[in-house]
Amino acid sequence: MGRTWLAGLTVALLAATLLVATVDDYGLTFDEPLYIVITDGLRGWFADVAAGGLGGLREQLRDERLRETWLFAARQNRNLPVPVLLSALFRPLGEGWPGPPYSYRLGTCLLLAATVALLFAGLAPAHGWEMAAVAAGSLLLMPQAFAHGHLAANDVAVSSFWLLAILLWLWSGTSARRALVAALVCGLGLACKASFVLVPALLGLWLLCFRQWRRWRATLVLAVVAPLVMLALCPMWWGDPLPRIARFYWRAFNASQHWTSDSYYLGTSYLGALPWHNGLVLPAVTTPPWTLALALGGGCAAAIPSSRSGRWARASCRSFACCRTRPGTTACGSCCRASSALLPSPGSASWSSSRGSGPSASGWRRGSRWSLPSSCWGPKAS
C-alpha cells in the first residue's frame, strides 16, 4: 500500500510538472477574463476580512457586500465559486513565473494532477499498475482534458469532482464515515456548476435500480452533507438560501430563456441549445480513437459474464495493441476496464451491469457486481 501511494505521489508530481511547464502555451479563452476579474475581487474581499477584525467581518458578511463581491449564479456569471476559489488560492505560487494571467491557471493544473494521481492510486491495489497507468495516462493525455487542464475555467473542476465523487462513493460501500468523504467531494462539485446536480441524481437512480438498501446510512450522509458544503461555499446565497438556490436551478435548467451563447457546430452557428446529437458527435470526434474504442469495449465487457468478459477484453486489447500481457496477468482486460472509466465526457453516464465475485464494502478496491455511471470497471477477468 505504501508503494502504491508513493507511486501515486510520483504520478501527481509528474502530471503537475507537465501541466505547469506548459501553462503559458494557451492564449486566453472566452471565460477566463471574467474569472480573473472575479478572482481579484475575491482576493480583495479575503484581505479585507483578514484586516478588518470582528467589526470588519460583520461589514464583509452583509448580504449586499457578499452579492457585490461573490459574482456567481448571476447574469454576469451563471456558474459557482469553487473554480475561482482554486484560482485565488494558488495564484500567489505563480507571482514570479509564469506571472499573470497564466498564474490564475495553476489551481486547475494542480487539481487535474491530483485527480490523475488519485485515479492511479485507487485502481492500482486491486487491478495492477498496468490498468492504473492506462487509466491515468488516458485521462491526462486526452487532448481536450489536457488542454482544459491549462485554463482558469470550470471544465476541469466539474470533471474532476464528478469522477472523484463517483469513485469515492464506490469506495465508501455501506460505511457512513467513508461516505462523508464522498459527500465532501460531491459538495465541492455542486459548488462548481449547476449540471453537477446530475451526479447525486444518477447515484439515487442507481441505488433504486440495483436495490442497494444497505447503503441507506451512506446515502443519508451524502444527501445531508453535500448540499451543506455547497451552501457553505456560496456566500451570495446566505441571506436567503432556499429561494435563491431554487431560482438558480430553475434558471439553469431553463437556460435558453436567461443565458445564451454562440456555438459553432457542424458548419453552423447556433445561439443557445445545440441539436440533440451533439452529445454523441462531439465526443466521437474529439476523443482519441483507441481511448474511445477501449471505453466502449470495456463497457460491453462489463455487461457480460466474467469468463466471456475476460476473453472479449483481451481480444479487444490485442486488436488495439494497447498493452502487453504477462503470463498469469489480466493487463489487457484491465486496460479495457480502465478506459471504460474514462468515457469522453464525465456527463455521459454509462450504465452497465458487471457480474463478479459479489458485493464488497470497499468496491473501488475489489470486484463488485454493481456498476456506477461514468466510472465503471468490472472484476478481474478469469
Strands in their spatial order, largest beta sheet: 1-2
| Secondary-structure-derived class | mainly alpha
Number of strands: 2
What percentage of residues falls in helices of 4 or more residues?
Answer: 55-70%
Poorly predicted runs are: 312-382
Number of helices: 15
Shape assignment: globular
Biggest beta-sheet profile: 2 strands, antiparallel
Give the overall pLDDT as a whole number.
79
- Strand portion: under 5%
Rg result: 21 Å
Order of helices and strands: HHHHHHHHHHHEEHHHH
End-to-end separation: 24 Å
List the helices and strands and how they pair.
Elements: H1 2-21, H2 32-60, H3 63-69, H4 82-90, H5 106-141, H6 143-148, H7 155-172, H8 176-190, H9 198-210, H10 216-232, H11 241-252, E1 262-265, E2 268-271, H12 278-286, H13 289-302, H14 306-320, H15 331-340
Antiparallel strand pairs: 1-2
Helix pairs in contact: 1-5, 2-3, 2-4, 5-7, 5-15, 7-8, 8-10, 13-14, 13-15, 14-15
Key words describing this protein structure:
382 residues, mainly alpha, two-stranded antiparallel sheet, 15 helices, 2 strands, disordered C terminus
